[in-house]
Design goal:
Layout (H helix, E strand, L loop, with lengths): L8 H15 L4 E7 L5 H10 L7 E5 L10 H4 L7 H9 L2 H14 L3 E6 L6 H12 L6 E8 L7 H9 L5 E5 L5 H8 L6 H8 L3 H10 L9 H10 L3 H11 L7 H7 L7 H5 L3 E4 L2 E4 L2 H9 L3 H18 L4 H11 L2 H17 L3 H12 L7 H17 L3 H18 L2 H17 L3 H15 L5 H17 L3 H18 L2 H17 L4 H15 L3 H17 L3 H15 L5 H17 L3 H7 L7 H18 L4 H15 L2 H17 L3 H17 L3 H13 L14 H6 L3 H11 L2 H8 L5 H14 L2 H13 L22 H11 L4 H8 L3 H15 L4 H11 L2
Parallel strand pairs: 1-4, 1-5, 2-3, 3-4
Antiparallel strand pairs: 6-7
Protein name: LuxR family transcriptional regulator
Keywords: ATP-binding, Nucleotide-binding
GO molecular function: adenylate cyclase activity; ATP binding; DNA binding
Length: 857
């Protein structure tokens, strides 16, 4: 093994093993991670230089740019892949890229696709990795992701890593620092004190190599920047100039660009021999990003601006079609005209590939120079930015920008464009928790577009009003308006308007408890997907799952939630992803998976509607387990629900607060909380809330309720007082806490004891305590004592469900097999396995099993 790869034998062997398995049809994802300078790139170079069984190794690198290039590391591979994938990458069509890259890997078994420095990746690239990872067991290839460990929780890569978890087919390779012995080997013959070098570098391979390479007569530079610049200064002046010029380019400099920046690759020989640059047929790049960064950091500002301007001019001369690179250098060079020209192109390129964060950032840059654009173009740019901001969950920024866009549309005097902009404004205002403003904008939208030549615009305007009515649980108005919109949209032949209206109509039916709404929502999703309208498809899917959860049709809700996640993962619609996380939390709450529910809402989301749901879930979990902080969570949820002013938020908060009052033994307070919202639910035909609030009232001594016989879901049956049938339905749904509540109404001791056993099993302490007290009052003997504490002593902090998963891992079960055993989704098991490994401080399943044996679990 070379000096560059000391103590890396097992890691290189792991990569080779994954490649051989892929060649046999067992694809793998390898997550290669560690701190900067730890040797990730060196390991990839070694693999590329000597691939197992002559496997094809494709290496694409992410660049340290101000805003990442859309599909950057993949577009760099266009000369090395088949024609279909190359064309798809150049065009940026998301679905075509997905399909083509899957075909590419299948056509060349054993291919190793490496995405280096994924901590700088754009979201479109990360989505490609996510797409491949979910199908890796059917692909004969390896996807290797290298990245630095220092990621914050909001980093886009963090979310991808969370999605991957520790699922089957995913390997983690964590590179460690070198031992003192390895440092001694690297410093041999240099005259340096190995112990001193180890103390100064802590065994980081890059730092060690830089200090060794730059040492002069056994003196060690105090910092790596000093080491790099010291070595650079030993080169001749011309080579220094060339190296500094290349340092401001954060990507591979290809032959065409190199020719314009330096006097040919031969002029870089000294820098290559000195270990500063890597020169290959593909181009020139710095041997390590830290070296490039050190050179840049040492440049005076005036010198850097001069070098950036030269790169920008050279890129324009080459006719480069990558606007993101041009924007990066234009900003660094202070070339406003170039920024004005290229930022909108970069934004639209990113948006076309669903790299919405990058699109928003480029639009934000363009908006800084808004007065440089003609009025019409300025309005388009501002609105496009608002749409991208909304897409990534920045509701308030979207409102501010769209208000600006609407003002510009008024100046331009085009009614149809104004109406379209007002509709967007209404949507953004609602998303930002400004319902009254949203309604004003919606009414103006319809008034402006009533005579529009493009009837689909009017259909969308009416459907937008229907959506607002729906969100307010004004079910009759929502049905009337959406029905009109459906008719107009079908006549106009506009799929987007039709899907939007069908979603409103189907959801309104679901509110009434009419399951015919499911078919409308399914059709809405199919219509949208047929024209690649991911936003409307995602909205239909979210609403379908929400309606099923409202009626506690949990198996169906879980099935459709998994399908819905596949839709939204095709594009970064953060708002919908957040709602789906809330849906998963509601599902976990209903199934008494307390820890899972809390994990899904931590941290609390910022958008007000989602935050209200998260607080309600948090408060309810704490209430049912007997944890502290119930009132704090539910009080904040109530304040937010009152501000939002919609029954869909007020109703669930009232259910939770009234439940808390009942558990405290205060039925009068429960009635006072539930009665106003129950009456509102009756007026608005909100079937599920009517049933839940009605049941609370009945159990608190208020019989003045009416639940229609047609409502056959479990909450409605229980609200009518049929506790035995309700218990059966709750059991079938997989809602143990609700089953226990129903059984607790029985006059029979056996049913009460059965309820107690359920509550003890799921850790529902307050209700279990109340049932024990009632049984004692009735003179029942041999009442089970129950667990002595709600959490068994466990120094590793594993939850009960995580311990169960760990035991099944020890049996050798895959995540899919564990999911079947526990009757949960594979995604849920992935999350549990990741949490188990993190809490045990291990990297592999095998290590976790060994740790469990040592702990006696």
């Amino acid at each position: 093994m070379s000096r560059d790869l000391l103590e890396r034998g097992p890691e290189l062997a792991g990569l080779r093993t994954a490649a051989r398995a892929a060649a046999e049809g067992r694809g793998r994802v390898v997550l290669l991670h560690g701190e900067a300078g730890i040797g990730k790139s060196s390991l990839i170079r070694a693999l590329r230089a000597d691939p197992p069984d002559e496997a094809r190794v494709l290496v694409g690198s992410c660049d340290a740019m101000s805003t990442p290039r859309t599909l950057g590391p993949l577009r760099d591979l266009t000369d090395a892949v088949g024609a279909r994938l190359a064309e798809a990458l150049r065009g940026g069509d998301r679905d075509e890229v997905f399909s083509a890259i899957q075909e590419e890997l299948k056509a060349a078994p054993g291919t190793i696709l490496v995405i280096e420095d994924a901590h700088w990746a754009d979201e479109a690239t990360l989505d490609v990795v996510r797409f491949l990872a979910r199908r890796i067991d059917t692909l004969p290839g390896v996807v290797v992701l290298t990245y630095r460990d220092e990621l914050d929780r909001d980093h886009p890569l963090t979310r991808l890593l969370g999605d991957l978890g520790h699922r089957d087919g995913v390997d983690r390779i964590a590179l460690q620092r070198l031992s003192p012995g390895a440092v001694e080997a690297l410093t041999a013959g240099s005259g340096l004190d190995a112990d001193r070098v180890f103390a100064q570098t802590s065994g980081n391979p890059y730092f060690v190599s830089e200090l060794v390479a730059s040492a002069d007569e056994a003196s060690v530079p105090p910092t790596v920047v000093a080491a790099v610049t010291g070595r650079l200064r030993r080169l001749d002046r011309t080579t220094q100039d060339h190296v500094e010029q290349l340092a401001v380019v954060p990507f591979v400099v290809d032959a065409e660009l190199l020719e314009r920046l330096v006097d040919g690759a031969g002029a870089l020989q000294a820098a290559e021999e000195g270990g500063i640059l890597d020169v290959s047929p593909e181009g020139v790049r710095f041997r390590h990003e830290l070296t490039r960064r050190a050179v840049v950091d040492a440049l005076p500002a005036s010198r850097r601006i001069e070098l950036e301007r030269r790169v920008l001019a050279a890129l324009l001369d080459t006719g480069l079609a990558d606007p993101a690179r041009l924007v990066h250098h234009a900003l660094a060079a202070g070339d406003v005209e170039a920024v004005v020209e290229w930022a909108p192109r970069a934004a639209r390129d990113a948006a076309a590939s669903s790299a919405h964060r990058q699109a928003a950032e480029h639009y934000r840059v363009a908006r800084n120079y808004a007065d440089r654009y003609p009025l019409g173009e300025r309005a388009d740019l501002v609105e496009e930015y608002a749409i991208e901001a909304y897409t990534v969950g920045l509701g308030h920024e979207a409102v501010i920008a769209q208000l600006d866009a609407v003002g510009l549309r008024r100046e331009l005097g085009d009614p149809e464009r104004l109406g379209a902009s007002l509709r967007w404004l209404s949507r953004f205002q609602w998303f930002d928790g400004r319902r009254a403003d949203a309604e004003v904008s919606a009414r103006e939208t319809s008034a402006v577009l009533v005579d529009a030549a493009d009837r689909s615009l009017y259909a969308l305007a009416i459907s937008n009003e229907a959506q607002l009515a729906l969100l307010a649980h004004d079910t009759a108005r929502a049905l009337e308006l959406s029905s009109r919109a459906i008719t107009i949209a079908r006549e106009a032949g506009h799929a987007g308007a039709l899907s939007h209206a069908l979603t409103n109509y189907g959801t309104a039916l679901m509110y009434r408890g009419d399951l015919d709404g499911m078919q409308q929502l399914v059709e809405a999703g199919e219509v949208a997907l047929a024209v690649d309208d991911i936003e409307d498809a995602a909205r239909a899917a979210v609403n379908l799952v929400w309606g099923l959860l409202d009626q506690y049709r949990l198996p169906l809700a879980e099935l459709h939630l998994d399908r819905a996640l596949e839709v939204t993962e095709r594009a970064e619609y953060i708002g919908f992803v957040t709602y789906q996380q809330m849906e998963q939390a509601r599902l976990d709450l209903a199934r008494a998976r307390w820890d899972d529910a809390l994990a899904m809402v931590d941290p609390l989301p910022d958008p007000p509607h989602a935050r209200c749901v998260a607080l309600t879930v948090t408060g309810t979990v704490r209430l049912r387990r007997g944890d502290e902080g119930v009132d704090e969570a539910l009080d904040e949820a109530k304040r937010l629900a009152d501000h939002l002013g919609e029954l869909q938020r007020r109703g669930p908060v009232a259910v939770a607060r009234a439940e808390a009052a009942l558990l405290r033994g205060d039925p009068a307070e429960a009635r006072a909380i539930a009665r106003p919202e129950y009456e509102d639910a009756v007026r608005r035909e909100a079937a599920s809330l009517r049933a839940e609030l009605g049941d609370i009232l009945r159990r608190s001594g208020d019989d003045d309720i009416h639940i229609p016989e047609r409502d056959a879901f479990p909450a409605a049956v229980q609200a009518r007082g049929d506790w035995r049938r309700a218990a059966e339905l709750w059991r079938e749904a997989g809602a143990p806490y609700h089953e226990a509540v129903a059984l607790s109404e029985s006059p029979e001791d056996a049913d009460q004891l059965e309820a107690l056993a359920i509550l003890d099993r799921i850790g529902a302490v307050p209700l279990a305590r109340r049932i024990r007290a009632e049984l004692r009052e009735r003179g029942v003997r041999s009442i089970p004592r129950g667990p002595s504490t709600t959490t068994r002593g466990n120094p590793e902090g594993l939850t009960e469900r995580q311990v169960t998963v760990l035991r099944l891992m020890a049996e050798g079960l895959t995540n899919a097999a564990i999911a079947d055993r526990l009757v949960v989704s594979v995604r849920t098991v992935d999350t549990h396995v990741a949490a188990v490994l993190a809490k045990l401080g291990v990297q592999t399943r095998q290590d976790a099993v060994r740790a469990a044996a040592e702990l006696g679990i």
